[in-house]
Model the fold of this input.
Amino acid sequence: MVADTWLEQLHDNGYRVTAARRAVVDTVHSSTHALTPIEVYDQARKKYRVLGLVTVYRTLEKLEELHLIQRVHQPQGCQAFISAGIGHQHLLLCKNCGDVAFFEGDDLDALTASIAKKTGYQIQEHWLQLFGLCGKCK
Amino acid sequence: MVADTWLEQLHDNGYRVTAARRAVVDTVHSSTHALTPIEVYDQARKKYRVLGLVTVYRTLEKLEELHLIQRVHQPQGCQAFISAGIGHQHLLLCKNCGDVAFFEGDDLDALTASIAKKTGYQIQEHWLQLFGLCGKCK
DNA sequence: TACTTATTGAAAATGATTTTCAATAGCGAA
DNA sequence: TTCGCTATTGAAAATCATTTTCAATAAGTA
Ligand SMILES: [Mn+2]
Ligand SMILES: [Mn+2]
Ligand SMILES: [Zn+2]
Ligand SMILES: [Zn+2]
Done:
């Protein structure tokens, strides 16, 4: 499975590759939905029955630290994680089924320049997230 | 104080105007920083000593319901609230001092149209938030 | 002023996340 | 391969944020 890259990254950063971590990594890596720790736990336990919820938290923490996953902020809550895109990407979430798509190529330079001028702020980062209905749900 | 509008709104929606609510409303209304429930509690207690933290939660809930305040999502957490802007506005946050500015006039129509085409999604809403340094901090 | 009932704060309950700890297992060195 | 060090594990306890319960109080209308 393609999740091998994540395991390699863990290993290259001095973390051990264990059965518990493999189960968590497989689960999160293969999901197109943002998953909460409990959801990861439930799914990963199908692959590795003795997994503990604490280990899910600890593994997610490391994956986030390595920028392999990212936290997804939504009106209903902000505990879910999803595979991080490569490079500068943003999320597009289906309000019906929760499916997540990535997109890039947003050009906010003109906007940020104008806002910087108006507000006197020096702008460094932006969060942009779109919500709607996916092809199947609309 | 200008917070009277919020109190009127509470009253017009069938909620009673109490000393506890006045203290919470004054605090949140006059802040240019996003405040967590505990922070609201600490500040509001200077105005109304016997205030309970539960009442802060309950009042914030009502203010949010009436769209007078909004939750602010940040890397460090998503529990803080700030006065909601009027109409369609977005936030610009100072990463140093936490000061919040509002802006409007973003035009994402071209972007969303292009993303809709590429992804097959029907786009309904967007979240946009900028981070940087305010005039004083930069 | 009197009455109805929304609101209050304290305390307990809940839910999510973190810490502690002794047993285990990954992995680099020999 | 085997060995030994130590990172990792899961259970249980602790912590932290938020919600619920409840009896006393006070807002607002008649
Ligand atoms: Mn958030
Ligand atoms: Mn906008
Ligand atoms: Zn969908
Ligand atoms: Zn600042």
In short: DSSP finds five helices and five strands in chain B. Strands of chain B lie at 69-74, 77-83, 90-94, 100-103, 122-133.
